[in-house]
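Check the record.
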Amino acid sequence: MSNLPGDSPAPSPTPSPTLSPAAFLIRGLAVGVVAGLIAFVVAFAFGEPQVDDAIALEEAAAAQLSPAEVAAEEAAAAEEDHAGMVEVSRDDQKSWGLLTGMLAVGAALGGLASLAAAAALGRLGRLSARGSTALVVLIGFVAVALVPFAKYPATPPAVGSGDTIGGRTAAYFGLLLVSVLAAIAVVVLANRLAARFDGWTAAFLAAGAYLVIVTVTALLLPTVNELGDFPADTLWYFRRASLITLAVLWAAIGVGLTALVGRMTDQASAETARRELAASL
């Protein structure tokens, strides 16, 4: 309605709720905790039996050590005790320890994914909030989990030398860093290519650029081959369980975060529409 002469100006409509990074982060942390709990169940059911088998093999091999090797092992254990390291029982490792780790990792990944989804909202072509969130989580799974796993897959106890753990860890995180940075760069590249090509062509070109970057990086990084005579079937079952756990964790984050972000944006759109309608009366 128009104002009559002498009337005070009509108040301007209140701004619609903002889809703030904090709102995304809160939902991401909550989803991450739930995803971590689900991943714990999967890891406990499928991964821990393989760890138990690997530990049994390690203990069997330790029983065949020479006296000198046993003395060296005891000396190393004494150094760890002197350094203040606390030994955790196997039962605690596979229960509370695993649960705590999964919840922490799930919350961290959920929080990071939610912030990335907030940054990508409205910047990935014509994708809706649900579509862009799902794509962000999918890219995160590939860049953070799948690509590093392909080069440096998880290994159970009794595999790998303690002398090379520093180098192996550095190589893994080096590939992880390159993979994440490359993923961010190709998303920017895809948006720029979309101005010249159709969406599918831009996506395929960007994906090809990412594949080239991570492949070259993986080839330049050292290869780890310290399996020895470890049983191939136990190793395969352990790595398969590890990959399934990662996939379940990321899938739970993707489904939960996509649903919550979609609901949040629907509510914000509805509130904006109501305010615009009220302002037009």
Observations:
- DSSP finds seven helices and no strands in the chain.
- The CA atoms of residues 21 and 118 lie 6 Å apart.
- The chain has two domains: 21-157+229-267, 160-226.
